[in-house]
């Protein structure tokens, strides 16, 4: 009889009497709780006894079921609401995402709708409906024309609260909202009406996420679950893959080093995969201390919760894309910060990496330059990059209290081609004056009053000076960006010594395996 009780009832039953046969059955760790795990949560595919966030329960299925039940309450898991079998892997990913949002972006969490329960005849890929099963997208605002056609709210405030994050560079704003099941269907119809070749060439792909003005659109193939980004302004095919064709290690994945005989001190340490050097058959691994190492594939182990829990089981690209996004949030690669550095009201999940192989950092004479880059499949430029400046050390160690940027030289190189040198004054109209703990906002550092236009007052601005710009596409779409910047100790008008150059470390310009 105990097999027909829910976990909570079994737990209560086990507490009533330690001598009864029902109590002993309900309290047993196996096989009762194993059956619960299998029949209630569909955990057949687990590579061990794990909780939904990768907790190793050491074979204690009673504890594991309790953790899965708790995760289910976070995503409103009820059979009556779901009307379909629970998908444990989707539930795990959604539970982890909800936990992150609750701690770091509660304003985004508030935009999520209750789960969607209806089936859909056009979706042939098993498990694809899991994206909407626990939360049916966001109540995402759109520009009037799109809102009218899709039944979405008209855009007022909140363009920057997209669940899948974004960026802003010049007049290009991106914040990707997850659409509800029905709005995604209507948005697909709207897109087919305005872009007939998309319907002709890609009839099985439907929209599942987009920006408020449709300048960036994500699609999923309903047959196989593959993910694509719509390339309205990028040239070539109308869509571009946004996730690897198969599961496995890829650029940006966090790994643990093992079996290194020449460098045993690195064994057990973690890093991020960079580019795979096919000529040497080695992965470039960037460690947490900033050093790079080339290692064989056999010397790296995946550390993600998905790899530990589910092994190498093949899953739809949409689920892998979603899980990778959650992992990047949990690892601190993406953060909830202003999309536009000068506008604090633009705060949202920002896709400018804060860690990982797309981030480089270098210190020259007490000035630290940190850069990161994001691929823009939808934009004619191709990449947007973020560069930040700050002072490190003490004034005595540096030899100056403040310094001001005067000019910069960028070196943009396509693989196999001669480098292009770009010289200019300041950076996008700024000449930041760095000081301990931040930078000075005034007419000298911001002559075009860009910060003033966003309501900021002159004075000390805490934290690094950060700005964003673009770099163009190339024939091979493989290259790098580096350079140096000239600073004056003191200020340009009142120098306190000879100018000096500061290095911008090289960062890659490549199309990543996962596109967000």
Provide the descriptors you would attach to this structure in a database record.
alpha+beta, 516 residues, SH3 type barrels, Immunoglobulin-like, 27 strands
Number of helices, where a helix is a run of at least 4 consecutive DSSP H or I residues: 15
* Relative strand content: 25-35%
Q: Architecture of the domain at 357-510, according to CATH?
A: Sandwich
Average pLDDT score:
85
Helix content: 10-25%
Write structural notes for this entry.
With 516 residues, the protein is of the alpha+beta class. Among the domains are: 73 residues, no CATH class; 50 residues, SH3 type barrels; 154 residues, Sandwich (Immunoglobulin-like). It is 24% helix and 29% strand. The protein has 15 helices and 27 strands.
What secondary-structure arrangement, pairings included, does this model have?
Elements: H1 7-16, H2 21-27, H3 32-41, H4 61-74, H5 79-82, H6 88-104, H7 106-109, E1 112-114, H8 130-133, E2 135-138, H9 144-150, E3 166-169, E4 172-175, E5 177-178, H10 181-194, H11 196-201, E6 205-210, E7 217-221, E8 227-230, E9 239-241, E10 254-257, E11 270-277, E12 282-287, E13 292-295, E14 300-302, H12 305-310, H13 317-330, E15 335-338, E16 347-350, E17 359-364, E18 367-375, E19 383-391, H14 395-398, E20 403-414, E21 420-425, E22 433-435, E23 438-441, H15 450-453, E24 459-462, E25 465-471, E26 478-489, E27 500-510
Antiparallel strand pairs: 1-2, 3-4, 5-6, 6-7, 7-8, 8-9, 10-11, 10-14, 11-12, 12-13, 15-16, 17-18, 18-19, 19-25, 20-21, 20-22, 20-26, 22-23, 23-24, 26-27
Helix pairs in contact: 1-2, 3-4, 4-6, 6-13
